[in-house]
Write a structure and sequence with these properties.
By secondary structure, the chain is an alpha+beta fold. It has 10 helices and 10 strands.
Length: 328
Amino acid sequence: MLRRLLVALAAILACATAALAEEPQLTPEQKAEIARLEKILASLEPQRGSVLLPKAKARLALGDGYYFLGPADARKVLVDGWGNPPAAADGVLGIIFPAGKTFLDETWGAVVTYEKTFYVSDADARSADYDQLLNDMKSGEAAANEERRKAGYESIHLVGWAQPPTYDPARHDLIWAREIRFGEQTDNTLNYDVRHLGREGVLSLNMISSMSQLAEVRAAAQALAKTAEFEAGSRYADYREGDKKAEFGLAGLVAAGAGVAVAKKLGFLAVLLAFAKKGLVFLVAGAAGLWAWMRRRFGRRSKDLDLGASAAPSEPSPEDPPPTDRAA
């Protein structure tokens, strides 16, 4: 489905390049694809302010700078809008976007999930060798790509760290980013991972964008991490002797972020058991950009570009961040 969209939009680009003086005409198939995407966009129900995540015993203090789409809407975006495998939406609690932006714009989206890993010790914060881990992660590509090809998806190549893993011992946030190439794409995909550690598990904000937006997504990741907080009793600092502990540390969380197949190859059996998702969530970089170009070219505008404008505000939070433009 996504491949059909890319082919259709690429054809429009070719027409525009070949005949700048003549407006290209949309085919019935292209018009149908546009209508399908606009229908998805119109069906979304954004939430703002303080968003509760009952399954994680946590909340997000999003303020006016971001909006949140719940599980059903997140599935629409990830699977129907971005063309990810259906399994990529399993267990997803929602997805966060900057205010005024949609899944059709050249922007980031943060996929929210929670894993009940139990208490993850941060004792390896200083000793973890992330360069060696990166090499090990790359070694798992061949087997994972073979499975993707069988399923009809493009291969994935891990180029390297866009930001090496860093840990905030005060907030218990682990943040890192990978540069990833899908197939023959020219603008590589940027996958920013934010993990907020709790007493019983880990809240994950997986930010999806392209490498051309690295600077703003790096800033957004730092700001977005501060919006996540576990409820009293479930915070990292609430750990008590006798609580069940995870069988891996921070390095295991980074390995898990590369997918179950890689975690298995690296010998992180405990990670494999804790993170049962079958695949990663990825935006195939370029689809949203081509859509944005086409919308500008033909003067098309989404009726509700700022999805949160007509939504009733959620419960206010005294810690809500101020409004931001694209990325905080």
